[in-house]
Amino acid sequence: MAINKQHAIDPDKCTACTICITACPVTAATRKFRGPKMTGPALTRLRKLVSDDDPMLDYCSNCKTCDLVCPSGVPISTLNMIAKNEYYKTHPRKSKADDMLAHSEKMGKLITALPLGSTFANLGMSVGKSFGVMGAMGIAQDAKMPSYASESFISKFKKIKQTPYPRKVVFFSGCYINYNQPEVGTDLVKVYQKNKIEVAIDENFVCCGSPMVSGGYIDDARVNASKNTALLKSWVDRGYDIVTACTSCGLMLKQEYQELFDFEGMAEYAAHMYDSIEYLAKLHDDGQFDTDFANDNTKYIYHAPCHLKVQAIGRPSMELLPMIPGIDIEEADVGCCGISGSYGFKADKHEIAMKVGSKLFNRIKNSHAKLGVCECGTCRLQMENGSGVKAIHPLTVLRQAYGL
Amino acid sequence: MLKTTVVVIGGGATGVGILRDLSMRGVDAILVERDDLGYWTSSRFHGLLHSGGRYAVKDKEAAKECIQENTILRKIGRHCVEATESIFVRAPEDSEEFEQEWVKSCAECGISAVPISMDEAFKLEPNLSRKLLSAYRCPGAAVDGFRLLWQTVASANKYGGKAMTYKEVIGIETENGTVVGVKIRDRWTGAEEKISCDFVISASGSFAGEVAHLAGLSVNVKPSKGTLIAFNHRICNRVVHRLHKSSDADIFVPHGSITILGTSSIDSAPDDTSTETAEVMAMMEIGKITFENIYDYRILRVFAGTRPLYSADPNAKGRSASRGFVALDHAHDGINHFMSVCGGKFTTYRLMAEKVCDIVCEQLGVNAKCHTAEENLVDDPSPDLISRAKAVFPSYGAELASSRLGNEKLERVIKRIETQPEMKELVCECENVTLAEIEEVASEPTSHTVSDLRRRTRLGMGTCQGTFCAYRSVGAVNKENMPWAKDSVYLFKEFLETRWKGIRPVLWGNMLRDIELTRAIYDAALNLSGVEEIK
Ligand SMILES: Cc1cc2nc3c(=O)[nH]c(=O)nc-3n(C[C@H](O)[C@H](O)[C@H](O)COP(=O)(O)OP(=O)(O)OC[C@H]3O[C@@H](n4cnc5c(N)ncnc54)[C@H](O)[C@@H]3O)c2cc1C
Ligand code: SF4
Ligand code: SF4
Ligand code: SF4
């Protein structure tokens, strides 16, 4: 099916100012990439005219830094993703990893469904690496892959006994939290309960589709978008707000769906969507945020994920976490970590990803912080991988400060 | 002193067509053009290779000529023609009876017009207005004016035909009532020289009256100006016509990376290529019937050309004057071996040349037949050359560059990149023009300005309209071995002024923002206007 949102493939807003090129982390890391202006709006015009080999498309990590800086509101990264989707309809894929990384939910389901599946999968990752299996698959040999949890968040959630409150949210956990770091999800429930919020989940939610879009599988993402949109709309109709604790899921559901697809109800539910910390910050604005914190004398360094920045919601974590008595937290503020979801796991992109992230890694090391803080799961992995400093979700910092 | 058999005045479609035809028949000929090839109407036009559909009801002869020439040019000029096909659409405001008459007429003229459902039409062209009622597919196409002229000249060159640019004919010399030569002046050096010849053909388009005047004659051309609006991207992938009695602003032509809407019809001076904002707005309102979201699309620029309409009756005006072409033999006016050719269409340029050359050859006693329909203008690049091009050009560059450069020049450009890989850097990012191509074209003797490079390469014709490629290209040509490119300030001004001329009437929205950026670079940073420092 064709992309039917006309405005999304319209290159007319670009004034060729080149600002996006100066901000793109991948362009800074490799001369092989011609950057957002060319790959996005400029070539969109030519793609309507001729077709050709276009190796440039794979370089864009969909970090969306370009969208953030563009003074003309060009959906640059979306133009890139649409072009990639169209391109691979007629050109063979270079890497076998694309499919696997784009459909991470399939993998997650498979692994957690097996008894001891996660143990074997995690073992398999390291054994596979040493035998070069991952390399043959197109996965970077020395990239640290996300490990799988032995029990999914959904299964853990069902065992939690919550106090019912009139303020209710539905939590879209997303694949990473569900299969890889369920403790972020359970931290959310604890922190929200402390703030008199009742948390619901919906087992029918499917992967938001973010990795599919980045991988150039927009048609697959469309199927997921259609399912999620209907479900999310029905929760909002029942008076629920929606929260996510993964900024890529949040961005996808709130903004990218609308750029790419045309389903009934998207704008309506999006008005009720919040990042998990943003939601608490809103509570704080209304004087309802619980600040009954214990001391935390740890030194932290906070990294704002690209997909949070582009949501234009400020830095809610840097509003709330400094309220914890004794805390020492600073923002890294040196741009992209390089991983961009699954980008940094690909064999031919790993080096670029590490180069992009090098500023952040040095910043973390030089800060002498004990822990990194970040809302995005794969960013946290990249921070640990590059700097050796462990990184946690801001919800975890709050949960600890509440003494829960 | 130069000597030849025939001098052709005017390097538009008509003139180059005649040059090629004569050369292929073995007649010695030189073409003299006052400006660059295609500087006037043959580039300031709509770029539509007519299927004939537009004329089917009103002028069956013209329609038949169009479909015949369309078929020939698709073959011999395949590197200049984008064989897009066309769609005729009827809107609620268009008459149904006309549709029926049109279908019948197309059949009579041998123009294929295949009715399609509106669903199919919207699938083919998603931006079409949902209010449209019926649609037909026809064999229209887009044709690149600059490219067709240069490739026609390249073909003439193979047979000894020569074209000189920036040479203005300032006198036509006769002896005993017969032409013996022309006097020309070099537009750059001012030097004058004579070309002696046996025959002069004036193919000077809207200027035919002025040129005839040089021989003391009068030719009654009524130039009629038409404005064209260029949009930043391909709104449609096929030519889209309104299915009604021909009128203003009823055709959209996808052209390379852009779309052109046209046109209008206003009596004008031959050199009037100005456009008023009000004219643009009036055309947009009509265009909206075909593409309902037209105001969302960014206008890149506007341009205008004048139709060289000939009329024997000095009082006939505008669109109703005959579109057919005339070949006036001035023997009737007392000067032998002097003809004026004007009118017609770009689409039928080859046929017009054939008819004119039949007359000329008869007078010169040459028996050779016309072969212009049988031979391609330029050879196709070999698969080997194409794969070499693919290896060195940036993405989306190889195919476009090969069709605009032609074989030999393509090979030279490829060599430049093969020996100096940095030559593949883009000077123009919007239209994907490499440094190698700019340097190659700049080194040709026909290049005198950056606008000349633009006409050969599409440099500066994309989204930014010269903002970034102006300083890059001026920098690239300002070299020892390019004597024409010494005065950078002149080069900047000439290039940017011609770009801005087309933008001023449509200076709003994103184009206004774009031009502010241009001003910041050229006026603020480079102080091109030469403002004194404020103490
Ligand atoms: C707005 C518009 C849209 C059109 N759209 C289409 C279309 O879509 N399809 C189509 O088939 N046709 C179209 N036409 C018609 C077509 O463009 C013209 O019929 C054709 O280009 C005329 O070519 P020409 O060579 O006769 O004139 P020109 O291209 O004007 O060439 C005449 C040349 O003579 C030169 N000259 C003048 N005086 C001298 C001198 N003293 N010495 C030396 N040289 C001199 C001029 O510099 C000029 O370059 C359109 C016309 C207009 C105005
Ligand atoms: S999304 Fe990120 S990597 Fe892609 S072009 Fe934009 S800034 Fe560069
Ligand atoms: S920042 Fe926006 S307007 Fe500027 S070049 Fe990039 S896409 Fe175009
Ligand atoms: S972006 Fe969010 S839902 Fe989607 S794969 Fe990541 S974790 Fe899954």
UniProtKB/TrEMBL annotation, chain B:
Query: Keywords assigned by UniProt?
Result: Cell membrane, FAD, Flavoprotein, Membrane, Oxidoreductase
Cofactor(s) needed for function:
FMN; FAD
Q: What class of enzyme is it?
A: oxidoreductase
Q: Which Gene3D superfamilies match?
A: BFD-like [2Fe-2S]-binding domain (1.10.10.1100), FAD/NAD(P)-binding domain (3.50.50.60)
Report domain BFD-like [2Fe-2S]-binding positions.
426-470
User: Where does the FAD dependent oxidoreductase domain start and stop, copy by copy?
Assistant: 6-335
The record's PANTHER family line, in alphabetical order, gives: GLYCEROL-3-PHOSPHATE DEHYDROGENASE (PTHR11985), GLYCEROL-3-PHOSPHATE DEHYDROGENASE, MITOCHONDRIAL (PTHR11985:SF15)
State the reactions this protein catalyses: a quinone + sn-glycerol 3-phosphate = dihydroxyacetone phosphate + a quinol
Entry membrane topology: Peripheral membrane protein
> In its UniProt entry, what is this protein called?
glycerol-3-phosphate dehydrogenase
Subcellular location(s): the record lists: Cell membrane
In alphabetical order, the GO MF annotations are: glycerol-3-phosphate dehydrogenase (quinone) activity
- How does the record describe its quaternary structure? Composed of a catalytic GlpA/B dimer and of membrane bound GlpC.
Q: Which InterPro entries match?
A: BFD-like_2Fe2S-bd_dom (IPR007419), BFD-like_2Fe2S-bd_dom_sf (IPR041854), FAD-dep_OxRdtase (IPR006076), FAD/NAD-bd_sf (IPR036188), G3P_DH_FAD-dep (IPR000447), G3P_DH_GlpA_su (IPR017752)
**Pathway of action:** Polyol metabolism; glycerol degradation via glycerol kinase pathway; glycerone phosphate from sn-glycerol 3-phosphate (anaerobic route): step 1/1
A Pfam family per the record: DAO
Q: What CDD domains does the entry give? A: GlpA-like_Fer2_BFD-like (cd19946)
EC number(s)?
1.1.5.3
Its chief place of residence is: membrane
Q: Which family does it belong to?
A: Belongs to the FAD-dependent glycerol-3-phosphate dehydrogenase family.
